[in-house]
Amino acid sequence: MTSPRPLSAPGHMGVDYEERVDFDRLRNYRLDRAKAALEASECGAFLLFDFYNIRYTTSTWIGGALGDKMIRYALLTRDREPVLWDFGSAVKHHKLYSKWLPDENWRAGFLGFRGAVAPDAGLMRAAVTEIKSLLVEAGVADAPVGIDIVEPPFLFEMQAQGLTVVDAQQPMLDARVIKSQDEIILLNQAAAMVDGVYQDIVDVLKPGIRENEIVALANKRLYELGSDQVEAVNAISGERCNPHPHNFTDRIIRPGDQAFFDIIHSFNGYRTCYYRTFGVGSATTIQRDAYKQAREWMDRGIQAIRPGVGTDQIAALLPKATEFGFENEMEAFGLQFAHGLGLGLHERPIISRLNSMENPVELQAGMVFALETYCPASDGISAARIEEEIVVTDDGPVVLTKFPAQELFVANEY
To answer: Do 158 and 200 share a structural domain?
Structure first.
């Protein structure tokens, strides 16, 4: 893809006077990519439990308490539309409002809430029997069935009924790696929402506010702005910055703290992972130096991003674990790396010294990923954390994350 003009973040509504997200085009693009992945595989069908893969192929979503309970599953065969087994009244809702699949493809299903109903009850046995009948009907019962994630009793039941099971997560992640124009608009819109939330955070980031209050503010504002899921907000301040704990507490933020935040949410399913670091009222030379180093590492990585570059080349530009206080790359993983963004928070490509040097992949236009850097300060407690979301285009990298981050931003400076 090329990017002759800035990528748009046009607003939430569809309108008649501008071209915005075309959801029919989005649904067709995703399903076509999944079908192409299936066609290129050894499988006769994919059976999908990963709720990002389910959304990718069926354009349905149930989050919150039901999103990760392994009770929703979809079957994709080569020459037919996907069949989705969903929870209770959601099926009737799909028939009324999700008209892109035939009514008979929306089916009720329940497997037991991750073991709360024991396999002996027969729910899994009945489900596999129904799935196998559809495979027989499609003429692919003798071919392998690809599965992305699965509960062991369900896998055992498939094997007991004579089905050969292989991995579908790899081809599905490959299918999801190149984003369409509609996906990129949604990713950009999600980032624009976080731009605004960071302004809200800056306005209140003063001594006396607690980390959890910042988390509450971010959740409130994101849902007000139209987020469909706030997956996590990390808030780390003061002595908690080094080493990075990847969480938040009720710590009271104090004058002169360095504080960083990560805002992870989704808009129409498409996610952000967006760190920013601030000084609270003031900043020391040591804190500014750490930030400058983290920014230099970030800019060095971004400048190298273009189609055709190997992820090993990008990883080689990031600092080694031993350069910032860790014994090896496993201990330092997640501090200097990049991860794909889409319906899932961690998609392809994953770029780090831990995995990319021996197993590189080639960057392609249409990939979207978040690049993260981290630099501990020499005072032993402070640290700088920066993250930018990047679209790979034929013209080079395009950064989606717009809140100022070239220099350490001091909130409510004294």
So the answer is: no
CA-CA distance, 215 to 209, in Å (whole number)? 11
Cα gap 350→359, rounded to integer Å: 10
Measured at the alpha carbon of residue 212, what is the angle toward residues 211 and 215, in degrees to the nearest 5?
Answer: 95
Q: What share of the chain is helix, strand, coil (3-state, %, to 5)?
A: 35, 20, 40
Is 299 in a helix, a strand, or coil? helix
Residue positions counted in the chain = 414
Taking a C-beta distance cutoff of 8 angstroms, is the pair 352, 337 a contact?
Answer: yes
- Alpha helices (runs of H) in 108-229, residue ranges in sequence order: 123-137, 152-160, 169-176, 181-204, 211-225
- Does this model's pTM top 0.85? My answer is yes
Q: What is the span of the domain harbouring residue 84?
A: 23-176
Is residue 269 within 8 A of residue 62, CB to CB? The reply is: no
Total number of domains constituting the chain? 2
Specify the CATH number for the domain of residue 188.
3.90.230.10
Co-location of 305 and 382 in the same domain: yes
In tens, the pLDDT along 267-320 reads 999 999 999 999 999 999 999 999 999 999 999 999 999 999 999 999 999 999
Handedness of CA 361, 365, 370, 376 (dihedral sign): positive
